[in-house]
Amino acid sequence: MVRIGPSITLQPLGVTVEARPGETVLDALLRNRLRVFHGCTRGGCGACRLRLLDGAVTFGRYSKGALDDDERARGLFLSCICVPEGDVVISLLEPHESRFPRWMRKR
Ligand code: FES
């Protein structure tokens, strides 16, 4: 089988999907029916944050409120605006690291 785009392996599920050239990580996961949490899809809310375990992603424009520099340095990225540069291994976040949109938070 001929590959056209980079592979994305999602841990801890161990599922690998192929991204189309230029496709964001989130779009590739959703297109392959992997239901990962997301919100605005424009880099503004932080709901789509995942962790990069191996490989590299290119960031598009995003709000520092959605992902600050410390979180980015620790390997977190916004799947809705990041495009894999090659094969990547990523993981879901621990519950305490997740960020849900304001409308889903308990008051
Ligand atoms: S879905 Fe809102 S920042 Fe990605």
Write a short abstract of this structure.
The protein is of the alpha+beta class. It has two helices and seven strands.
Structure description:
The chain has 107 residues and is of the alpha+beta class. The protein is built from 2 helices and 7 strands. It has helices at 25-31, 69-73; strands spanning 7-11, 15-18, 49-54, 57-59, 76-78, 82-84, 88-91. The protein has a 5-stranded mixed β-sheet with strand order 2-1-7-3-5. Strands 4-6 form a two-stranded antiparallel ribbon. A hairpin with a 3-residue loop joins strand 1 and strand 2. It binds FE2/S2 (inorganic) cluster. Residues 38-41, 43-48, 66, 78, 80 line the site of FE2/S2 (inorganic) cluster (FES).
Mean pLDDT: 91
Q: How large is the count of helical segments?
A: 2
Order of helices and strands: EEHEEHEEE
Bound molecules: FE2/S2 (inorganic) cluster
Annotated CATH homologous superfamily: Beta-grasp domain
Q: Radius of gyration in whole Å, from Cα?
A: 13 Å
Distance between the termini: 50 Å
Strand portion, in percent?
Answer: 25-35%
Low-confidence spans: pLDDT under 50, at least 5 residues?
none
> Taking strands numbered 1, 2, ... along the chain, how are they ordered across the largest sheet?
2-1-7-3-5
Strand count: 7
| Structure class | alpha+beta
How many discrete domains?
Answer: 1
Largest sheet: 5 strands, mixed
User: Helical proportion?
Assistant: 10-25%
CATH architecture group name: Roll
